[in-house]
Amino acid sequence: MLFDLSGRVALVTGAGQGVGAGIATMLAARGATVAVNDLRSERADSTVAAITGDGGKASAFAFDVTDRESVVAAVRDVEQSLGAVDVLVNNAGNGGGEAMRPRPFRDTDPSEWEGPVRVNLYGVLHCSHAVVNGMCERRWGRVVTIASGAGMVGLDIGVAAYGAGKGGAIGFMRHLAIENARFGVTANTIALGLMQMEQPGDVTARMARTIPVGRLGRPDDAGALCVYLASEEASWMTGQTIHLNGGSVTG
Ligand SMILES: NC(=O)c1ccc[n+]([C@@H]2O[C@H](COP(=O)([O-])OP(=O)(O)OC[C@H]3O[C@@H](n4cnc5c(N)ncnc54)[C@H](O)[C@@H]3O)[C@@H](O)[C@H]2O)c1
């Protein structure tokens, strides 16, 4: 079977809902044993219940990706209970205060910048650092980071600090890829476009009109690409930032 992840252990951060839950579910459907992380344990538990209810293998690990010591301890727990981490998907992220109240950078307070940079950049550094040496020793590993178009192009929607965090992660992943390519470890980034969220139907329709394919993204869109990037078949794919956005940014 193509893209068979049987026997692989995948850690997906921020997988208690949304995009991360979709990624965790699709990796499990291809046979991976998934360590479902979220800051909020009840969210991680609900993703695990959905996966195991469908006959998949998953366990919940609640921790904060911005806290390095918690990440190190949690990766140790994952390895003891499920086995060594073969696949890391850095999905946890958000826009911090900007997500709630987007506005131009010039109108933000400096106290608002640290949150988005910590989760979108430091979260990726912490989790990648905690797993990459083991991957190199075992001569096999896959790291995938969920970034955003906001880390690639300038936007006038009030998400500059978020873009700084995502752009930092995109740059980091390129170095991770090159440093570790000879050890069988790949590192790729998905620059995600606008996803379907809980928003009024007219807002969804208006946003969808800005996307050439004519719809917002779904968690499964990201999940399917992660399945490929996590697979044996993707061993020649590394150091790339892949736009996944229904055509709203090309190139
Ligand atoms: N939704 C979009 O339109 C969109 C667009 C581009 C990129 N993205 C990126 O995709 C990823 C997932 O987005 P989403 O829309 O599913 O987000 P979401 O807010 O719906 O879910 C994110 C999950 O991550 C968890 N989380 C947040 N901070 C955490 C931390 N410090 N440690 C561990 N878990 C944490 C949250 O509890 C939540 O369950 C994010 O990195 C986001 O920046 C989303």
Blueprint of the fold:
Blueprint: E1 9-12, H1 18-29, E2 33-38, H2 41-53, E3 57-62, H3 68-81, E4 87-90, H4 96-100, H5 114-138, E5 141-148, H6 160-180, E6 185-192, H7 201-208, H8 219-230, E7 241-244
Parallel strand pairs: 1-2, 1-4, 2-3, 4-5, 5-6, 6-7
The structure holds nicotinamide-adenine-dinucleotide.
Descriptive overview:
It is a single chain. The chain has a seven-stranded parallel β-sheet, sandwiched between helices. It has 251 residues and is α/β, with parallel strands linked by helices. Strand 1 (9-12), helix 1 (18-29) and strand 2 (33-38) form a beta-alpha-beta unit. The longest helix is centred in the middle third of the chain and has 25 residues, at 114-138. It contains eight helices and seven strands, in the order E-H-E-H-E-H-E-H-H-E-H-E-H-H-E. It has a single domain (9-244), classed as NAD(P)-binding Rossmann-like Domain (Rossmann fold, 3-Layer(aba) Sandwich), CATH 3.40.50. Helices cover 44% and strands 16% of the residues. Bound molecules: nicotinamide-adenine-dinucleotide (NAD). Nicotinamide-adenine-dinucleotide binds at residues 13-14, 16-20, 37-40, 43, 64-66, 91-94, 119, 123, 146, 148, 192, 194-195, 197.
